[in-house]
Amino acid sequence: MGVMEKIIDSITMYVDVYFFKIAGLFFFFLIFSSMALLLPGKKDRERSKKNKGAEDKEEDKPSLSYFTRVHDINGVFYKDFKLELGYYLFNLFLTSLLVGGIVYVLTSYILPEIIPHQYFAGTVQNFPFWLQIFCGLIIADLSLFVPHWFAHHVFWRFHTIHHSAKEIHWLTGLRLHPVDTMVFTIGGVLVSYTIGFEGEAIVLATFVMTMYNFFVHANINLGYPKPLCYILVSPNYHRWHHARDKRAIDKNIATMFPVFDLIMGSYFYPHDEMPKEYGFFEPDKKAKIPEKFEQQLIYPWIYARARKENDKKKKLKKKEKGQEDGKNVR
Ligand SMILES: [Zn+2]
Ligand SMILES: [Zn+2]
Known about the structure:
Bound molecules: zinc ion
Shape: globular
Largest sheet: none
Oligomer: single chain
Strand content: under 5%
Number of strands: 0
Order of helices and strands: HHHHHHHHHHH
């Protein structure tokens, strides 16, 4: 094949990929927006209560009534819809090109040298198809869990963007800083390459996973009772991941199977409660999360600096306190 043909070939492939990604997004838009719209909202709940003549003084408390909307919005375009769609398009057209290059070099030149034997290569393909899909789902979830764990414990400054959402809607799953996107993609490739599993089943499993990721972020009040809550992640389980609540920091990292959280000790799911607010704890007033996309792109560095200064202040205070305590002893 000539060079020109090769170039045309790869361009066609890219166009195909983009077409599917955009068409897929439109498909998910239809599903999740209509799903949330069809559910009754807070106003409908109030109206039905009034009709029944019941008075509820605890209306301020986030409600636990399942199969309702959590955030009341008019129509499908919620407040941060444009921003979150912007993140998706930015990552699709710019970040993925860069990451695609890195992943190509990694999987064709570097990884085969380091990992000569892929653990499940060939083995899984001999399983019945349903079992292949199940294994595919576990591998796909693990490929998300590992980088997500690192995003919380090492690259948190970039992952703050995902957690900056004050309301959680289906597209919030794609609200990722470009560096965070790289962490997720490269981390995911490292995990799935090491395990080594190819074929239709993993493609289908990845599709189901993408859909499930939209579902757990959707504007739906839905939790699973015991013991199902230990087996599958529910939208409310992931809502706690986004809660601005001291008890929920770095909890519920799994997207589909809570077993990973149970193993890592990051499982947190109170059945009789809903998060009061969403977001994360900013280090100080100067490091409040901005609303605009371009300001959010540089936010991780502002966050890191504020956090550093904060830590310094804390250390100094501790030192002073220690000295005072020392004096008192003497
Ligand atoms: Zn999330
Ligand atoms: Zn997270």
